[in-house]
Amino acid sequence: MIAMSIKKILLLCAFFIFCLDCGAARPKKPARNMENVRKEKKMTEEQIRAASLQLEENKRKTARSLNALNTLNAEVAEHKNAISTLNGQILSLDNEMSLLSDSISELDGKLEAMRKSYASSVKRIKESRTGITSKLAFIFASESFMQAYRRMRYLQEFSAWRKKKSDEIQLVRNDLEDKKLQLGKLQKEKAESLIKLKKEHDALSLKQDETSRLVAQLKSEGSAINEVLKEKEAQARALDRELDRLIAEEQKRQEEERKKAEERRLAEEKRLAEERRLAEEKRLAEEKLAKEKELTSKQKQLADNSKKTEKKAKDVKPDKTKKAEPKKSELIASAAPAASKTKPAVAVSADNAVTLIKISGSFESNKGKLPFPVTGKYKIVRAYGRQQHPDLPHVTTENSGIDIEVSPGSTARAIFNGKVSAIFRQPGFNTIVMIRHGNYLTVYANLGDILVKNGEEVKAGQTIGRVYADPDDGNRSILHFELRKEREKLNPTAWVK
User: Fold this and answer.
1) pLDDT band at 444 (very low <50, low <70, confident <90, very high)
2) pTM for the full model?
3) How far is CA 453 from CA 267, 430, 433, 434, 438, in A?
4) What is the pLDDT of residue 206?
């Protein structure tokens, strides 16, 4: 038992010594101080900043890929349209060539028949003159003068017939040659169209392969696409809200200006009516004063007469007074209608002016004929309205206008006469210019250099500014163009050509 106890004690001592040795071998953890904490904080911030930059770069890369996909889809559509047009041209050429071939066959048969008929006729005439070597010999071989005359007429008619037949054969031959030349041109044109068609098919195949690779890449990014699309949708909604706010403010300002103009018109009418009333009162007062002076003068003359004449004059005076009073009332009554008649005349002229303002604009009458808002070559890379993405499943896009890709350095232009009503900036759209054309408005977004100012009157075709070239996207230049009737959104492709 003692031996067992000693053995246990020795084992416990050995284990304790082993633990002490292990503890001594392990390096001590350095004590944390403010300097270490600052370093760790700085390192963490740098890691967070690097991660944020990487996320932003991934978003930009995804956005560039989406823009490239839109461009590829537009180019694929262009190639398909070109192929469809070329196929139509080739089909039309085939029809024309078939018709020409039928005409050539018909003319060949007609020419051959004419040649045979002509040769047969000439042969019969020669056989009838067997043994006679010349026209003169044929005539002098006649048995009488009448026979000689008939033979001469016969030779003349035969010569005319022969010339006519030769001309007819030549015309058919010329027509045949023309048809063959036309057929040769059509065949050459068809060959050129077939070469173009092959090039378009090859280009389409390349674009489709490139699109497939890009779609596969975008599908692998999944969440990044959704994040970029959500950001773009948020920017588009913000632009819609800002445009609605600006249009509402402009409508409110126009309504206030209209009310002020109406108030000024009514005040002017009131002032003119007051001036007419005062002028009429002044005229009546002057007439009354003149009458009073006239009466005073007559009274003085009557005072110098005899009492009998004075009495008579006194009897006449009330009559004159009675007569004067009706005249005064008649003048006042006649003045009142005159003032009342002037008011409707002014109101009618004002209404006419408003009507002229409404019907003077012809923006709406030019629907489908307005010029495109950019110069040079262009591609519509995003159409108007809500649409399912052609390549990415479960991805739906909505556009309040159209997105037009142009070459770097291209400019935007006004599509109609109007007035610049707003110039502002919005995230994702750079500088935006809004132009009013009566009740219609056009919006030109993603501009760089601006060549107009707020409130400026612009003409159709006038340059508004340069389309922004994005240096982070290979200088890709895309104009976002919208068309509205006040706040109602319209499809621009139905208005421009």
Assistant:
1) very high
2) 0.57
3) 34, 16, 9, 11, 18
4) 81
